[in-house]
Design a protein that fits this description.
Length: 219
């Protein structure tokens, strides 16, 4: 649905204002994550002592819930307590049916804390039916066709000087930088997000849980 000009400008301004906060210089790997009470805090890199990729045969849990390799991306995400905002957004955009299809898809899934770092009111505004087109752009910018594991990203980055450029379902590129165990997403505005839990396998693809929202070009 096409937004009226004032609504589009307001929402774009809110998103870009929040992205400016996220684009601040990334803290060092030893910096502890910002408290959840600070909604505009820059996402901090995860502790690199724990690899993003899980080497064991069992699937990582997300939000305290087990993730089943026999369930779809939407079904598993719906069970995770830290992905409730994402699930609500996916349903509001009408993408739940798409992400239940065979795919496969690679999804970089922002946590509730990631969405809370956007400018106040942004999520509520995005969830309004009039802003469905913008919400869809934001969400599909977190999805890449195919199944791309952490090891795949590391291999591609090694061949590309430490970075790999992915083409998202939204159509714009998303850069992934690899430094040891740290996997960083960099959007078209330079905003950064970090993989907290990688290689969560699904029946129709794979999910990497991230601590920030990346944004495509809007407006």
């Amino acid at each position: 649905m096409t937004l009226f000009a004032p609504s589009r400008l307001l929402l774009t301004g809110m998103l870009l204002a929040s992205s400016a906060g996220i684009a601040l210089a990334a803290p060092q790997a030893t910096t502890p994550p910002a408290p959840a009470s600070d909604p505009m805090a820059t996402p901090a890199p995860p502790d690199t002592g724990a690899p993003a990729s899980t080497a064991t045969a069992s699937n990582p849990s997300v939000g305290g819930a087990p993730m089943s390799t026999s369930k779809t991306i939407v079904d598993n995400a719906s069970a995770a307590s830290n992905l409730t905002t994402l699930v609500s957004a996916v349903k509001a955009a009408g993408l739940d049916a798409t992400l239940a299809q065979p795919g496969p898809y690679t999804v970089f899934a922002p946590t509730n804390a990631a969405f809370s770092r956007l400018a106040p009111g942004t999520v509520d505004t995005l969830l309004k039916p009039a802003n469905k087109a913008t919400l869809t752009k934001v969400l599909t910018y977190h999805v890449v066709p195919g199944t791309i594991t952490i090891d795949d990203l590391k291999a591609k980055a090694a061949a590309g000087g430490g970075k790999v450029l992915l083409t998202t379902v939204e159509g714009e590129p998303l850069t992934v930088a690899v430094d040891g165990q740290m996997i960083t997403l960099i959007d078209v505005h330079g905003n950064k997000s970090y993989v907290e839990t990688g290689d969560v396998r699904q029946s129709n693809g794979i999910v990497h849980v991230v601590n920030g929202v990346v944004l495509p070009k809007l407006g």
